[in-house]
Amino acid sequence: NLTDPVFRGKYHGKQKHEDDLEEMKKRCQNAGVKSLIITGTSLRESIHAIKLAKEHDFYATVGCHPTRSTDLDRHESGPEGYLQALEDLISTNLTGGGRVVALGELGLDYDRTHHAPIDVQKKYFRMQLFLAKKYHLPMFLHSRAAHADFVQILTEEGFGTNGGREVGGAGGVVHSFTGTAEEAQDYVQSNNVILSLNGCSLKTPQNLQAALAILPQWIIFETDAPWCTCTSTHASRPHLDELPSNYRSVFFPPTGQRPQRTDRGRRRCMGCL
Questions:
Q1: Cα separations (Å) of 229 from 197, 199, 223?
Q2: Are 222 and 193 in contact (CB under 8 A)?
Q3: How far apart are CA 111 and CA 122, in angstroms?
Q4: Which domains does the chain have, with CATH numbers?
Q5: CA angle 193, 197, 198 (to 5 degrees)
Q6: Hey, is 192 helix, strand or coil?
Q7: Tell me, what's the pLDDT at 190?
Q8: What's the rounded Cα separation, in Å, for the pair 203 and 165?
Q9: Cis peptide before 105 (omega within 30 of 0)
Q10: 10-residue stretch averages of pLDDT, the chain, 273 residues long
Q11: Can you say how many angstroms the Cα of residue 238 is from the centroid of all Cα atoms in its chain?
Q12: What pLDDT score does 253 carry?
């Protein structure tokens, strides 16, 4: 989420501290991060993500987040024009020195239907999937409280087995996974997609049990920065205290050298993106 203004020191529209993007990049490098993928969650943010990717030698995704689904109806050229603009972004930034590596963020979010009604989310989730097929792109997927409909749409569109490779797809990642152990098995067995975990995936004891049920080869980790860190109230927090000292020295400042939260923003997830 490098397009978020907090990485430039802005919180709720106000400049709270200096732009520290370069400082953040150095912390990423010190933690062993080789490159970053910047998430596009709308047409506008996808354009911004590609611009940042080119400037900093990173990579980007292109797509429309389910909570932004109504953007398609409000676009000056209608939904078809919005989708065409997404496709143009992909086609012109895919090959050569292209920065686009995935379609997304796309999917369904039934926890936040006040942003976009369910029927609108389902319609435009389905319509975006043709881009994964046409350009053979892996998908950066979002599913929140919508498992049955999410799996059904993927299956009906040809992504029910082998990550959709039979219809031109290239698999994908269900990011910020917060589902049950049974749902995790559905994704792995039926849709052949990888599950990505972050702090929000590890809040409760039930979350931890679901994570334990996933075989390691089907898991990757993300920060979803600047959000989704592990807080002191998360069930996973005690496990961080068990990290070997060589890891703690990389990911946690030494005692007495923590940055002031008032200067950098409360709960800001800054290890890497």
A1: 11, 5, 7
A2: no
A3: 14
A4: 5-264 (3.20.20.140)
A5: 150
A6: coil
A7: 74
A8: 33
A9: yes
A10: 79 83 85 89 96 94 98 97 98 89 97 97 98 96 95 93 89 92 86 86 87 89 80 80 76 51 43 39
A11: 25
A12: 54
3-state secondary structure of 195: strand
Chain-centre distance of CA 231, in angstroms?
19
First to last CA, the chain: 7
Residue 220 pairs in a beta bridge with 196
d(CA 75, CA 63) in angstroms, rounded, equals 14
* Whole-number pLDDT of residue 99: 94
Q: Spell out a b/e string for 28-44, using b for 16 or more CB atoms within 10 Å of the CB, else e.
A: beeeeeeebbbbbbbbe
* pLDDT reported for residue 271: 38
Strands (E), the chain: 10-11, 14-15, 37-38, 59-62, 100-109, 139-144, 172-174, 194-197, 219-221
pLDDT of residue 250: 64
61: helix, coil or strand?
strand
The model's pTM: 0.85
If one counts every other C-beta atom within 10 angstroms of the C-beta of residue 198, the result is 20
Q: Cα angle vertex 116, ends 159, 202, to 5°?
A: 65
> Side chain identity at 76, as an amino acid letter?
E
DSSP string, 1-54: -TTSGGGGTEETTEE-S---HHHHHHHHHHTT----EEPP-SHHHHHHHHHHHH
